[in-house]
């Protein structure tokens, strides 16, 4: 079973805005969670960020960690997301 990609981001993050533009141009299939839309979305993202070792450097450097994609329990950050969807037509 193929799971749909879940991308966490925010419209106040330039990388997130650019990523969404690129993925929309490619008609990529994904679900988007705007973490600044409401507290439930923010809590869901923070629970993910604060519980995964992949975010260790991000937390240590006091970055937010978006955009980030969760796909089949694996995390992918900005550059990796671009590479994954590069083959989308």
Total number of beta strands: 4
**From N to C, what is the helix and strand string?**
EHEHHEEH
Which strand order do you get reading across the main beta sheet?
2-1-3-4
Measured between the Cα atoms of the first and last residue, the distance is 22 Å
- Report the major sheet: 4 strands, mixed
Q: Summarize model confidence as the mean pLDDT.
A: 92
Helix amount: 40-55%
Alpha-beta classification: alpha+beta
Characterization of the model:
- The protein is 43% helix and 20% strand.
- The protein has 89 residues and is an alpha+beta fold.
- Strands 2-1-3-4 form a four-stranded mixed sheet.
- Strand 3 and strand 4 form a beta hairpin.
- The protein starts with a strand and ends with a helix.
- The mean pLDDT is 92.
Which features characterize this protein?
single chain, 89 residues, 4-stranded mixed beta sheet, globular
Secondary structure blueprint with pairings:
Elements: E1 5-9, H1 14-25, E2 30-34, H2 39-51, H3 56-60, E3 68-71, E4 74-77, H4 78-85
Parallel strand pairs: 1-2
Antiparallel strand pairs: 1-3, 3-4
Helix pairs in contact: 1-4
